[in-house]
Automatic annotation (TrEMBL):
Keyword Calcium attached: no
Keywords: Membrane, Transmembrane, Transmembrane helix
Naturally occurring in which organism (per UniProt): marine metagenome
Bilayer-crossing regions: 25-46
Stated name of the protein: DUF7088 domain-containing protein
């Protein structure tokens, strides 16, 4: 897969505006897309703890650590578990807190503190409430995948909008087949993204609200008008991202990508981290 978000030859004015007005939005988008697609988009260096468990159950994925390291707001998690369940819950929460001072947690026994349970409208054991500012997210389990997604939702002020391009034999984000991308679409929705999966560019521009354009495995060349629409959107001063998935065939975008200093080689990327396990894939 290949990813582009502009290049060194884009006019300085466009590049400066993108850096000034859109860096936080792009960072947020790339972190969560990294979670979903299994691509480590941010190289973050941090202190390591040695995990001596055979399965690595106390080791957070690189994607979760990236999200934690880039938190700009405080996140508080209140988990409602019985006292005898505390030992099975706290190690994961402690790992999150270890990586950033912006993360804090409490484990509340709803039997011993029923007033606190009613305050947060908790009706079942195992519920966790993720709070950031005036935003709350609830999860029914304390697994890393669910907790990280809940944090990503809680810290987002606006829903980024993602479009899937169609009209060139692309894989369908609504299909459950082996070549389909329903799993990715569902993961994006769970991560609080707005997904629109039927963008035809033959007679229109890329919508202004497009934060990320995904081109999933195109099989035919794009029309010149489509290529120009994509170029105009990304060089028009708006900060956005472009992802090409499995670009095995020429799309017509190659000259545009080269002008951004991006060359799609069609290389194979092998994911060796535990992100697949983290995402339940």
């Amino acid at each position: 897969s290949n990813l582009a978000g502009g290049g060194s030859d884009v006019p300085n004015q466009v590049r400066n505006r993108a850096i000034k007005y859109g860096s936080n939005a792009v960072t947020s988008i790339l972190i969560v897309i990294g979670l979903i697609l299994g691509v480590n988009l941010l190289g973050i260096f941090y202190q390591y703890r040695i995990d001596t468990t055979e399965s690595g159950i106390y080791t957070l994925s690189g994607q979760t650590v990236s999200l934690l390291d880039n938190l700009e707001e405080d996140v508080n998690v209140i988990s409602f578990f019985r006292e005898q369940e505390r030992k099975s819950v706290e190690p994961l929460l402690r790992q999150y807190a270890y990586h950033t001072d912006r993360f804090s947690y409490r484990i509340v026994d709803p039997d011993r503190e029923p007033v606190e349970a009613r305050r947060f409208r908790v009706k079942s054991y195992g519920t966790s409430v993720v709070i950031s500012g005036d935003r709350e997210e609830r999860i029914a389990s304390i697994e890393e995948k669910d907790l990280t997604n809940a944090i990503a939702k809680a810290v987002q002020k606006e829903k980024p909008v993602i479009y899937f391009l169609t009209g060139h034999g692309e894989a369908s984000p609504g299909s459950d087949s082996r070549s389909g991308y329903r799993r990715i679409k569902n993961a994006l929705l769970e991560a609080n993204y707005e997904v629109r999966d039927s963008l035809l560019l033959v007679s229109q521009d890329v919508p202004e609200d497009c934060d990320l354009l995904i081109v999933p495995g195109p099989k035919t060349l794009m029309y010149p008008s489509e290529i120009e629409a994509i170029r105009s959107h990304f060089e028009g001063g708006r900060t956005a991202g472009l992802i090409l998935i499995d670009p095995e065939y020429r799309t017509g975008l190659e000259p545009v990508l080269e002008s951004w200093s991006v060359v799609p080689n069609g290389d194979l990327v092998v994911e060796t981290s535990n992100v697949g396990k983290t995402l339940g894939m």
